[in-house]
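Reviewers of the previous submission asked for a worked example of the structure-prediction workflow described in the proposal, so we include one complete record here. The input consisted solely of the amino acid sequence. No template or homolog information was supplied to the procedure at any stage.
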Amino acid sequence: MLRKLTILPALLLVAGLSAQTPPKPSAAPPFQIDKPKVEAYLRHLFVWPSAIQMSISDPVPSDVAGLYQFRMRAWQGDASQEETFYISSDGQKIIRGTSFELAKNPFKEDLDKLKTEYQPNFGTPGAPVVLVEFSDFECPFCRQEAQVIRQNLLKAYPKEVRLYYMDFPLESLHPWAKAASIAGRCVFHQNASAFWDYHDWIFSHQEEISPDNLKSKVLEFASGKGIAADQLASCIDSKATENEVDNTRQMGHSLGVDQTPTLFVNGRRMVGVANFNDLQRVIDYEVEYQKTAKNAGEDCGCEVKLPAPGANPQNSAPGTLHK
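From that input alone, the workflow returned the following C-alpha cells.
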C-alpha cells in the first residue's frame, strides 16, 4: 500500500506536466535604428545646423517588402519639414522617396489629410476638381496668388472647380497674420459670403495694416457688410476662432506645408505663386481624368455629407475630396 501511495502522486504529476501547453517562443524584438547616426547623416544631407531641431520616429514595417519606414521631422520656429524615409532591414541603406500603389490615386495620402468641411470656399458644389489653398494674409506672394485665382479661376471654370481657403499664418515672419486669420474666421461665422470680400480687401490693403491698427481696419471694412460690429469686435478680442486657425495650420504641418502659398489641386501639390497657364494645364487634365477615374474632386460619389445647421450650402457646406 505504501508503495502504491507513493507512486500515484508521481504518475499524476507526470500526467499534469505532459498536458501543459508548451511555452510559446518569445516575440522577436522590434526593429531598431541608430537614431543619432541617422540624424547626423540627414543633417549632413540637408546642411542643417544644430539650431534646426530634428526628431526621428521609430521604424515600422512599410508596404514595400523588405523595407521599414520612419518619419523625419525638422523645425525651427514656425518653419518645419516632414518626410518619410525607407530603410533596409540591415539598417545600412536609406531610401528617400515615395512608394505608389498602382490601384490607388497617387495623391491619396495627402488627400486623406485634407479636411475641407466648413472651410471658406467658392465654386461649384460637386465639382470634379477641388483646390485647397494654404495661405497667409500678410504674405506678399499669397497676395499675388490671390489676385491670379480670384481674377481667373471662375471665369475659366464656372462649373468645374471649387476652392477652399486654409489659414496658414507664419507668425515668426508676419506679426499680424494670425490676428488677421482670426478676424477673417469671425467674419466667416457671421456672413460666409462676406469672407471673400474680406479676403480680397485685406490682401489689397496689406501695406496699410499693422498689429496695432488691424482691429480698427477690420471693423472699418465690415461697415455696411451686414456684419454686427459689436459681435465682430468681441470675437476678435476673445480670439474665439483661434482654435480653427490652429487646426488648419496643424493640417498644413501634417501635409509638410512649409511655405505660403501652397496649393493642392485634387491632392497634387503646387508650391509658390501659381502661373495660371500651369494651373490650367493641371485643372484641364483633372477635369477629363475624373470623368472616368472619379477618385478625387467632390463628385466621386463616395460619401454624402450634410451642411452644418444654419450653414449656407453655397458658401460653407462641407466638401468631400475622395475616399
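The chain has ten helices and ten strands. We consider this example representative of the routine output the project will generate in years two and three.
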